[in-house]
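Pasting as-is:
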Amino acid sequence: MEEIMGNPPSAIVRWGIAVFGSILLLVIAASWFIRYPYIVYGNTIITTENPPVPLVARVSGRIEMLTAQEGGEVSRGDVLAVMESSANYSSVMMLTTQMDAFKIPSPDSFYWSDTTGLPPEQPGLGELQEYYSRFRKSWSDYYNHVTIDQYGKKAAALVEEIEGIRRYRSRLFSTERLYEERLRLEQSRYLRDSLLFSSGVYSREQFEISGQNRLKAAIELEQVRLDIATREIDISVRRKELQDIIATGEEERMTYQSSLEAAYLDLSARIDWWCRNYLLTSPIDGRVTMADIWGENQSVSEGEIVMTVIPEGEQKLVARVTVPAMGAGKVNRGQRVNIRLAGYPYLEYGMIQGVVSGRSLTATADGYTAWVELPDSLVTFYGKQLDFTQNMPGTAEIITEDMRLLERVIYPFRYLAEKNRRVLAR
């Protein structure tokens, strides 16, 4: 027996090796031809192309006024609910209307109900009252500056005074011409009298009287010219005063206007802040569906969804799949997707089929986002039509490229060989 076991027949060995080698070759050949896809799993939500918009409470408190009803139609910009605050809703809306009509810088471009030129008193503004009072004071300062127009009146008086000096200067020019003519005549008389004095016709006394008259005429002419020069200086001084008054008035007007604009912007920003925090406004046209809200005076917490606005009309259905980072690089446009909805057991209803239409370029904490088109809408591959509700949850199977079984076996060994080669190369 030991001889038989220690020396097996060579034929059996050859046949065993041949059979084992054949089986191994068959396995390798089969692993080359056998392919199956790599599947990436992810959570999905089916919604419309224009998804519903949740309205979230920005502050904690009671619902003071509820204007929306379950299933009611709303338009973009409609106020659906008002949160409790120290400001009265109607007062804020009236103030918003007035502020929308307000224009800077024209003081008469806005109609106030108060005949004093001030914006009307607005009771019930709560936390907006401080900003409105500041705006009202700035408006009062600006309005008084423009309507009283102190610097404008001073400028008008100076202009009138300059015109009076110019008229007086014009008369001095006429007087100057008369004195020039008189001096010319006195000069001629003096020359004539000097000849008569030389010939002995006039006495020295008569000749000196003629010289005195000529000198007097010259002095009077110079006096007129000096008066003209004085009036020129007066005009220059008044012009300088006029420029200073205009510049000062404009500077003060700009100061009041800047203060008014700053108060206006502060008040407008505060009104926007109040509307964002205390008003729930519909951002789209659609229908309202309530969350856990059923009436006024109900308390809600900050961050709580109060209601949701669902877009109107026929909407294209899409699926939004959250793809984990592991394997996300294999997800590409055009790949098939099978979707199992949580509300419809897939063994009974089947799965919905779709096609990847795109993938986000950046990842979030949950992974990447892939968008899936649904060519057959909510018809499963069993031929069953599923009812649509917004944000239907489910699980998606993204079928990526097919890989040979042999490649899946070789890849780990290739990785280890490459890793060892790089370690040895160091």
